[in-house]
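[agent] plan:
  1. take the single chain provided in the ticket
  2. run structure prediction with default settings
  3. attach C-alpha cells to the ticket
  4. add a short note for the reviewer (M.T.)
[agent] executing step 1
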Amino acid sequence: MNRLTQKLLLSLFFLLVGLSFGVQISQFVENWIFTEVGQYGNESLIELFNYFSLGIIGFVMAIVLGGGVIYFARKKQQEIGFGEHGELYYEVFRECLTAQFLVCENGTLYAVSQGFCKQIGESEDALIAKGLKGLVDEASHELFTQWQAQGGDFEQLVLTLSEAKTEQVHITVSLNHTHLQGVFLGQLVDVAKQRELQKQHELLAITLSSVGDGVVCTDNNNQITFMNPVAEAVLALLTDEVKGKDFKEVMPLFHEDSKEAISDPMQQAMTELQTISLNELICFRNHLGLDFAIEVCCSPIFIRGEKIAGAVLVFQDVTESRMMRKRMNHLAHHDALTGLPNRLLLQDRLVQSCKRAKRHKHQFALIFLDLNKFKAINDSLGHDSGDELLKQVAKRLTASIRACDTVSRIGGDEFVLLIDSMDDRRHVRHVVEKIFQASSGDYELRSRQVKVSFSAGVALYPEDGENADSLMKSADTAMYRAKKVGHSNYQFYCAELDKEAELYLEKETAMIAALHQKAFLPHFQPIYNAQTLEIEKLEVLARWQYGSELIVAEQFVDIAESAGINGHLSMYVFELAMPHFVKWSTQYPKLKLCLNLSIKHLLNGMFSEQLMTLLDKFKLQPEQFELEIAERPLLERADELKSTLDSLSCLGFNLAIDDFGLGHTNPSLLRELHFDSIKIDPSFINEMGGGEHQDDLALVMINIAKSLGVNCIAEGVECEVQAKTLASYGCDQLQGHLFSKPISSEDVDALLGKISKA
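[agent] step 2 finished; step 3 output follows
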C-alpha cells in the first residue's frame, strides 16, 4: 500500500468519524433548542434545520478531529522524524543510492535506502522486519546495547554484519543530535577499503613531510592551507602561523639579479589551468631577512573534473648549488690567485671589443705585460713571496686603469691589459707609461723589498689585427721584442717583428734538427799565462756548421735556450771535446779545460752526476776542469745555487765567474761561494789604453781578485798595450784575439806543436 492510498483511507476514516459525531450533536441540539419550536412552529422547518445542523456539525467535527490527529502526528514526526518536510525527506532518503539506514534506540529500523537494500541484497520490508538485531551479529548487537546505556555524544560505533556476502563489511553508526531524537544514522562502509584509503592518506602526508623539496598549498583564494616541514624550515614559520594568509604576503618572489618582484605563480597556474615552471633565477626573502635561491614548479589542484580547489607550489632550495655554480663559473673565468679575468674571459671580452670597435669605428689597445726577473724572485724568496708579489702587482695594475678597461692574468707572470677607446698611439704611450710608473718600483714582501720592472708589447685594433687571435699574437710578439731590447721597455707591434719571429722560429727548428744531425762541433780558445805567455787553459766554445757557414755561439745560444735544448747541446759539445783533451793532457798534464755552464745546467739535479759520468768515461779528473758561470744570472740565483756550487767544488772542480764586473758582485758573496777565478768582462778591457783613468776599473778588479786570493783572467785582450798593462797590474792570465781566436781541434794540435818545438 503506497503513501497516497494510506492518505485517502485516513481522510475517509476521519470524515465518517466526524459525521457520526455530527449526528449525535445534532440530536442534542434539536432536543434542547427546538422542543418548544416544535410545539408552536412548522415541522418542515425543524426537519430542514436538522439536516443543515447535521451537515455543518459533522463537517466541523471531521475537520477538528482530522486536523488534531494530523497536528499531533506531525508534532510527533518532528520529534522523531524528518521535521516539517518529513514526507519529502523520507522519500529522498529511501531513494538514496548510498548504503544508509535510520535505527531507533530500541533497535528497530526506521528507514533504509535503496543503496542499502541493494548492497545487502534484501528488500526494504525484510530489512525493517529484521531490525538491527537481525542485521548484525550477536557481539555487535551487545556492543550497541552497551553503547546506548552509556549515552555517549558524537561517537562512532563499528558493528559487524551477521552475514557478509563477499568480503568483511562493517557498519559505522554515527550519533547526531542536531535534528533527530532517539534515531541514529548508520551507513554501510567497507572498513578494509576505508583503512586502506586512510593508510594512503597517511602515506601521502608522510611523503610530503619527508620529501626534500618545499611544498606549499593554497586554496582558490590564494590563501595558504598547508606547508610541509621543509617549507616551514625555509620560511622559518609554522603552517598554523601562516594558514589563511595570502601567498604573496608569506613568500614574495623576486629576480636574483634585477631584484624585481615576480608575478605570483600560484595565481598564474590557477588562471591558466596549467603547470608553471620558473626557470629564471628566482629568490625569496623570509621574515628573518634571509635570502634563498629556489627553483619553482607550480600546478593547479583540480577536484570533480575541472573545478579548481587551489594550487600547489613545489620549490627546491638551490642556494648552495647556485652559489657553488657561481663560484665555479667565477673560477672558470678568473685567475684563482689574483681574482683577475683569465685567458678565457679575456678572449670573450676581446671578441666583444672587436665587434664594438668595428660597429662604432674606434680603436683600442691590447697590452702584453711581463715581469722582469720574476723567476729569480720566485726561486730566491720562495713561491709564497712570488704569489704575494703577483697579487700586489694585480692591485696596482687594476688601480692604474679605468673601470671600463680589463686587467687579466693569463699565466705565470704574464698580464694582459685591454684598454678600450684609444685615440692614437700618443694616447697609448701615455697610458703605458702611466701603468709603468704606477706598477714598477719597490714592493714589500715579508719585510723584504724587491724592485720590479716590466716589459710590454702593444697591439692596436684594427691596424695590428682585426680579430682577437691576431691581436693576441701581435701583442705577444711585441712583448718578446721588448724583452730583447732591454728591461723596463715597451714596444709597439710592427710587421717586421713577425718576420723576425718567423726567422727566430726557423732557427729554433733548424737547431733542433742540427742537434739530431750532429752538426755542432767544439772550438777552443787558449788562455795564456800573463807573464810567460804559456798556454795554461783551453775554453770550449760551441760552433754550428750550418751548410758552409760556421755560426758562433753568440748567435744561437739564446735560441737554444728558448728551444730548451741548451743543456743537451752543451753536454754533446763537451763530449766531443773530451777525446781531444785526453790527447793534449797527456803531453801537457797541467793543461785545464774550461766549460761554460748555464743556470739551467746547475739547477738540473742530474747535472753533476752526468758530468762525472762523462769524466769517468774518458778517465779524466775534476781537477783538470774549470767550470765558468756568468756573473749576472749567478747573482740572481745565488742562494739557490750555493749548495750545487759547493758540491762541485768538493768534487775537485775549479769554479770561475765569467763576465765579471757586469753584475757588481759583492766581494763577501765571492768569499762565501768559494770561486777560484774571476774573468774580467771584455768591455772593461776595451777601455784600457784610451786615455787617463781608463785603466782604473780593470785595476780595481785585479785588486779584488788579489784581495780574495783568487786567479784573475782578462778576456778580450786585443792589443799588446792591453796585455802588457794587465801583466804589469798583476793579472794572472790573458785571453783574446791578440793571442788566438777560437780554433778547431786540428789548429790546437798545430798551435801546441809549435809551442813544444819552441
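[agent] step 4 note for reviewer: The first strand starts at residue 100 and ends at 104.
[agent] ticket updated
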